[in-house]
Amino acid sequence: SSWGMEGFPALVRGNRAFAQQDWSTAISCYTEALDEDDDDVTALCNRSAAYYSMELYKTSLKDANSVLEIEPENVKALERKGLALAAMGKRKEAENAWKAALMIGGDLDVYMNVLSHLGFASHAKHVEFNGSEPIQSQTPRKQEKMASYYPHSSSSPAKSPPKQDTVQASAKHVHGHKSDNHSGISLGKKEKKAVQEVEKETYDPDHEHDKSASNRGVLTISASKSSETKDPAQVAALAAAQNLIAHGIGNISVDQKIALGYLQVNTGNYKAGIEIFDGMLREDDKLVAAYLGRGTAYALQGNLAAAAKDFSRAVDADPNVADAWKRRGQTRAALGFDQEAIKDLTKAASLSPDHECFHQRGIVYHKMMDFRKALTDFRKALNIDGSSPITWNFVGLCENSLGRTREAIIAYERATQLDPNMKEAWANLGQAYRDAGDRQNAEKYFAMAEKLDPNYVHCYHLRGLLFYGCGEIRLALHDFSRGHECDRNDKNCFLMKAVCKHSLGDMSGAISEYTLLLKMDPGHLCYYQRELAIYLQKHLDVNLISFNADVELDAYFKESYCKRDPTNHPRLGNYIPQKPATSKIPDVKMVDKTGVKEVDELVELSRRFGPLIQLRSAGFLSNLRQHRMCGLAILHMAQQAKAWWQSGSTAETVANGSRRYDLYFDVKGSSKDCGKKHAFGWRDFMDISVKWRQISEPNDPVFWIDLMAPEVFAEGFGLQTPMVTGQMNVVRYYPYFERARDVVKKLIEESGACNVHDQRFMLPPNKIDQLREAKTCQDLWEVMQQGFYVETPCHSVARPGEIMAGTRITLLQKPPDGFDFTIRTPGTPPRWVEMDKEMAHA
């Protein structure tokens, strides 16, 4: 009564309440209708829907069964029965109900919904190019390429019941606007007249059924319920008669053929659909609908070139059809013609600025790594329709790629609210928390993704990386192994499974895994790690102070490993691979306690010092393995330092009270002078920490720069810390940005800057005020108009009064529309000589 519905039949009032998502009122109204006629199948079916919406699945099933007792071939009731059974965990019984509905047919909307429930209606979704997932029915290579447009988006049938068709008020309103959310309720015969009066309140006139393709997608056809219609041709004829065909020409005979072709493509019968459209185009080569239908069928078959040609013909036939531009844009993007795709999608948006146009253009921008433009488009799409979890997921991906983890988390959370079964959004949410350095929440949301799909390889890979980054190698190994079990062709999990074994000292296992991966992919970069694993395996029983990987490994091998060069790189032309590992040296056994008192005491003591290495700021996970490495390295270095100081700077054994401290030093294990005889110095002292770091992390190359290939050393090979890279503000290091920017501005004003050719130049006086006002990388670029670097001054301790070139702060342009703003420390020979003097003095 509060809606002004007094006097209307109970079923109409129930439908109105349902439209407002007032389930309890709807149920009361439907029950009232059933009190008048307990065999009213419409009221029973609608009440089943309302109970389902309240998650009262057993009661929903009961009503659906009651309908079927009266009308055994009621496809709507069969669909509802299946939904209730599926929600109750009875998937097999649900599928039986849905298959029965397919055998009966008669209602195209129910037909397509049931295909969706069974996992086959992805055809319909694909045909509409709605961005929910990549095209599946194509060659593996093209499928992989298409998948790149939809990172972390849903590619499996939804586990939650898909949204149903809306209230079937009349032939005119076969489909209500999707925001109406009527969830498939129906009107009875005696309400037909009453509904004429209530339609204006139930429906927004601006959202009436629109025959334009921009609202429904070219391959969407609709038909009202008719128990007499069982044949696809009859369904197509009904749709044509109701004038519901996208790009129909108003000729019922022609439109019926178009509808039938669409129906064939929608249900996966691509060849049959193409034959229908071929025949139509022989009669009329300007028929836009036929080109769009046939082009879509080609696309779903993986024949993207033929699809693009058909969409181009549709554009030529009628340049004002937005759908033709949109589909050609999508196809061109799949073919790798990104700029052309952007132009087409922009034209489509100008003709019909709908959600899909902006969403699809956002996908292309995302693929081009222009995350700002992609984000703008996804936001525009959400302004049109904010209910798309896939678009929200893309917003999260863009925000995360811009370094805004908090905004990404909010977007992923919205996606999971809209679709709690979207495993990709849960996994991305976990990844965003991992990027922020929040292990607890990352684990929580990865677990949600795993729960939805126990075979979700990507989730195992991401969570494995989380555990690995936390130093929990055994937990990481479990996840990578599980991911590899789920997909034997997944190289990411395969590689990290080997790296974990390498980390744990299972050298024979690691070498075996690396070798198998190389058999699968002979050019895989795990070649470098296998070489290192073989080298380390041979030295497991050698005292740490008696060997040095930096000296013994080939300099060009180390360079190629650091640069991730292809394994057939010319620099490796003279490299002699490691000889096979020996079976005489056993692997390291994993134990929680060694049983050796002194060793266990050292391990326990290391816990006091290891956490000192931890940076407690955004983006940094607490890595237990690196804490252990750091703690043991500190103890090792402390022992050596104390022995050195007490020895009076000699390598002899000395006494200190009742304890003796020995300086353990072997020139064969020194990185200085390639193992030639020399006194213990700062380099030998630092060798200790370098060796601990090399052993603790086999997935990172750690080498002395002056022992790299001579050409690389001369060029200035070194470290860099990115504060901004591309369009991303790097979570870990962006907090340094303002301080670094101000240092850059001060140094430019005082002493100028160097260009990329190491030529110093001064800023013109008329640019100084603009420099002082610069806030962003873009501002600095507009002032300088070129890539540049400044060098911070480093005051010598060994030679008081002298100023050396310190670290460099560099700004370079990075397409698209981004910059690299980094702290770089080049290790050139002259700088190395200066550093050696400073360290020796210290």
Structure explained in plain terms:
- The structure is a single chain.
- The chain is of the alpha+beta class.
- The protein contains 39 helices and 9 strands.
- The strands form 2 sheets. Strands 4-3-9-8-7-5-6 form a 7-stranded antiparallel beta sheet. A two-stranded antiparallel ribbon has the order 1-2.
- A hairpin with a 4-residue loop joins strand 5 (753-755) and strand 6.
- Helix 5 (75-87) packs antiparallel against helix 6.
- The N and C termini lie far apart (88 Å).
- 43% of the residues are buried.
- Mean pLDDT is 82; it is low at 120-230 and 650-658.
Essential attributes:
842 residues, alpha+beta, 7-stranded antiparallel beta sheet, two-stranded antiparallel ribbon, 9 strands, 6% strand
Continuous helix count: 39
Q: How are strands sequenced across the largest beta sheet? A: 4-3-9-8-7-5-6
- End-to-end gap: 88 Å
* pLDDT averaged residue by residue: 82
Uncertain segments are 120-230, 650-658
The level of helicity is 55-70%
Q: Give the class from helix and strand content and strand pairing.
A: alpha+beta
Query: Biggest sheet, in brief?
Result: 7 strands, antiparallel
Shape: elongated
Strand content: 5-15%
Q: Over all CA atoms, what is the radius of gyration?
A: 34 Å
Q: Count the strands?
A: 9
